[in-house]
Design brief:
It is a single chain. With about 140 residues, this protein is mainly alpha-helical. About 45% of the residues lie in helices and about 5% in strands. The protein has six helices and two strands. The chain has a two-stranded antiparallel sheet. It is elongated, with a radius of gyration of 22 Å. The model has no long low-confidence stretch (mean pLDDT about 75).
Length: about 140
């Protein structure tokens, strides 16, 4: 599980801290985020803190050896155009030459909304290759998907 998944769950409606959305340390109402009291996103012990207080407390906890720093996930460079996307899909499926790991990294780094649009646009070509019912026409036998 990534830190991003933990952060996403920590910000769900049922997991938010009780009380008004106000920093429990300095009292400001702007830039307030969920603060993990024990210093790790594995626990549900949360309160509200402004970004400034949250950062200061996080730095203090790091020096004291308390908690676990969040590992930022910064995706790679997104795919620049539809042709590159289709090439990466082909590499990932094993029907085009290239580095599969790099192809997946490129695909995942591209905005999901853009990937969905490009996938919809490619449906006609995929239908011609794989058949109207998604059969195995034109697909190598050793490709598992």
């Amino acid at each position: 599980m990534t830190d991003r998944a933990k952060r996403y769950r920590a910000n769900q409606e049922g997991a938010l801290p009780a009380g008004p959305r106000r920093c429990n340390y300095c009292g400001v109402k702007k830039n307030v985020v969920v603060h993990h009291v024990q210093g790790t996103e594995d626990h549900r012990d949360t309160t509200w803190a402004c970004r400034s207080c949250n950062t200061r407390i996080g730095c203090w906890m790091k020096k004291a050896g308390i908690g676990k720093r969040t590992r930022q996930f910064n995706p790679g460079t997104p795919i620049p155009d539809y042709a590159h996307y289709m090439w990466s899909i082909g590499v990932a499926r094993g029907v085009a030459p290239g580095d599969v790991n790099q192809a997946w990294a490129d695909i995942l780094a591209t905005d999901p909304e853009l990937r969905s649009r490009w996938t919809r646009e490619s449906w006609g070509a995929r239908k011609a290759i794989y058949g109207s019912r998604g059969g195995q026409v034109g697909r190598p036998a050793d490709v598992p998907f």
